[in-house]
Amino acid sequence: MIAGFGISFDKRRCSIAKPMITQAEIKNVLVNRFPSFKIGDMDYADVYKMISRFADYTREAIKTGNLPLIRECFKTSDFLFKEGNREIKNAIENVFVFSLAVFLDAPGALSRQVKDLLPASLREDYKHQFMTLNQ
Fold first, then answer.
1. How far apart are the first and last CA of the chain?
2. How far is the C-alpha of 94 from the C-alpha of 112, rounded, in Å?
3. 39 backbone dihedrals φ, ψ, rounded to 5°
4. Residue 64 to residues 57, 59, 60, 61, 70, Cα–Cα distance (Å)
5. Per-residue CA distances from 68 to 74, 112, 113, 114, 128 (Å)
6. Residue 67 and residue 74: Cα distance in Å, rounded?
7. Residue 72 to residue 77: CA distance in whole angstroms
8. Which residues share a beta bridge with 21?
9. Which region, left, alpha or beta, applies to residue 97 given φ > 0 means left and ψ of -120 to 50 means alpha?
10. 14, 29, 64, 113: which has the fewest Cβ within 10 Å?
């Protein structure tokens, strides 16, 4: 009970929401995880441009067949999708996942490997986009 207010507080039922990743933090996440990823002086407020540049970086990894780098790119995009604020999630859905569709839809072994590496949450989003476009 909080003294003088007649309010009880049960610590077991209280959870503290962890803060979501914001636009200002994306640049640091990407540069720390990918030293070869060059953002330059891009304005961190433009989430869509930053995610678009990250999608370009990921597509280059796919084109060269660099599976460890592809895996890390997907892991990072999944992290941003799950831990990012609404704008970051929208950018991952509408820019990152959409831009990879050409590789996910292609025939061949590399396409299958890329699909297998795509985290479940992003794979579900891709399937949802694919189903929506084909209705």
1. 56
2. 22
3. -100, -30
4. 11, 9, 6, 5, 10
5. 10, 15, 11, 11, 26
6. 10
7. 9
8. 84
9. alpha
10. 14
Question: Cβ(18)–Cβ(77) under 8 Å?
Answer: no
Collect all residues with Cβ–Cβ distance below 8 Å to 76 and sequence separation of at least 6.
Answer: 29, 30, 33, 34, 54
Q: How far apart are CA 53 and CA 20, in angstroms?
A: 21
Q: Which amino acid is at 4?
A: G
The reported pTM is: 0.78
Sign of CA dihedral 10, 13, 17, 18: positive
Is residue 84 helix, strand or coil?
strand
| pLDDT tens, residue order, the chain (135 aa) | 444 445 554 555 555 566 788 888 888 899 899 988 877 666 656 899 999 999 999 999 999 999 999 999 999 999 999 999 999 999 999 999 989 888 877 788 777 888 888 898 888 877 777 666 666
